[in-house]
Design a protein that fits this description.
The complex is a heterodimer.
Chain A (H helix, E strand, L loop, with lengths): L11 H13 L5 H7 L1 H5 L6 H8 L3 H6 L4 H10 L4 H9 L5
Chain B lengths: L2 E8 L4 H4 L6 H20 L4 E6 L14 E4 L3 E4 L10 E4 L2 H13 L5 E3 L6 H10 L7 E6 L9 H16 L6 E7 L16 H12 L3 H11 L10 H10 L5 E9 L4 E8 L3
Parallel strand pairs in B: 1-8, 2-7, 2-8, 3-6
Antiparallel strand pairs in B: 1-10, 3-7, 4-5, 9-10
Helix pairs in contact in B: 2-4, 5-8, 6-7, 7-8
Chain lengths: 97, 274
């Protein structure tokens, strides 16, 4: 049976993904900065290349598979105005091992 | 000595405010009416403060410092913290004295919550108060349980914390009337391949155990079966804490509906008065 959590303790990669998504939606002007210069904005975080690519590509499935906290992922999808149908389809396409 | 005037529980989801049109108007009105009824019952109990059991959905807290349980001890709480939530920005009045009392009493009685004197509350507290129509009227004391990022406090610990908190409230001398509102759950799952799943069988069995006042059964069921009901169902910690406050009295379910297009098994109810 699927568990509620992909990681019962986040990996370092997941932590820094969480940190980037958290600050993007909580620090004043960060969202505007990110939209203007996404590569420059993300350079401040210790992101693996695949983690950075997942954020830049709005790759909801890859963010989920990397262990991003579901509440941060949900808020990111709403905050980035990723259409609900798109994020749902991406998540439902993930094959749980 | 304070009287606990009522112990209430209600689901919360930002979708109720964010995407109201996602469900048929008749269903929506029925749910909003259930919240208004709970609001009327809270108001009729004439509390001088409401202790709200909820969770912070990673807004005030982050993984660099994430309390298992945090008691608010501020005299006001701006809300909502979510920049995207379709809710009027407002400032909820707090009861800093009651928060400080609960904090010191907890520490003297074997619990170690953190405290915060500055919280910007999220939909978890605001949505049920707003829909119940009591967001402006009564000072609140938020008690925030980590239900959003493992590792989390156990279901049993949350029940025990509620059991202590009920006793602490009854021993509080500075107010005469205090209500408790637990918010969250029941089954729902966010941002996973199961998103949209509602487990009605889980919800109804959990409610049955509350109605039977089976504290041990509810704790065991929650701990062993929560993975069947989604990551949002972890919020039943707040319901168990409220059950702990109720001194073994039975719960009454006022409303339940599995609302798949709001992604949530929505329930409201209360524990019988002493």
């Amino acid at each position: 049976m699927m568990k509620n959590w992909r990681q019962m303790m986040p990996t370092a990669e997941a932590y820094w993904l969480d940190k980037a998504l958290y600050e993007l939606h909580h620090r004043p002007d960060d969202l505007e900065h990110y939209r203007r210069d996404p590569h420059g904005y993300l350079a401040r975080y210790r992101l693996t290349p695949r983690a950075k690519a997942a954020i830049l590509g709005n790759d909801v499935a890859a963010l989920y598979e990397a262990g991003v906290n579901p509440y941060l992922l949900r808020a990111h999808c709403i905050g980035m105005r990723i259409p609900e149908a798109v994020s749902l389809a991406a998540l439902r396409g993930v094959k749980e091992g | 000595m304070a009287q606990i005037t009522g112990i209430f529980a209600a689901s919360h989801t930002p979708v109720m405010l964010q995407f109201p049109e996602a469900i048929p108007a008749a269903d929506r009105e029925e749910i909003y009416a259930a919240f208004r009824e709970t609001g009327k019952a809270i108001a009729a109990s004439k509390p001088q403060a409401i202790v709200v059991f909820s969770d912070d959905h990673l807004h005030n807290f982050f993984l660099n410092n994430l309390p298992a349980i945090c008691i608010g001890a501020a005299d006001q709480y701006p809300a909502p913290v979510e920049h995207w939530l379709k809710a009027e920005k407002r400032v909820l009045q707090g009861d800093a004295g009651l928060g400080a009392y609960l904090l010191s009493s907890a520490l003297e009685n074997g619990f170690d919550p953190s405290f915060s004197m500055e919280l910007t509350l999220d939909h978890g507290v605001l949505t049920p108060l707003e829909l119940a129509g009591v967001a402006r009227d009564v000072p609140v004391v938020p008690v925030l349980f980590n239900c959003v990022q493992p590792p989390m406090p156990t279901m049993r610990r949350c029940y025990q914390f509620g059991d202590w908190l009920g006793r602490a409230l009854r021993a509080y001398g500075a107010l005469e009337r205090v209500a408790i509102l637990a918010t969250g759950g029941i089954s729902h799952d966010l941002a996973t391949p199961r998103m949209g799943m509602v487990n009605e069988a889980f919800d109804r069995e959990f409610l049955r155990l509350l109605e039977a006042a089976d504290g041990a059964g509810a704790v065991t069921f929650a701990a062993e079966r929560v993975h069947e009901a989604g990551n949002g169902a972890e919020e039943i910690r707040m319901w168990l804490a409220a059950m702990g406050c109720a001194e073994g009295r039975p719960f009454r379910t006022h409303y339940y509906r599995a609302v798949r297009d709001w992604y949530t098994g929505i329930a409201l109810g209360s524990w019988a008065s002493a």
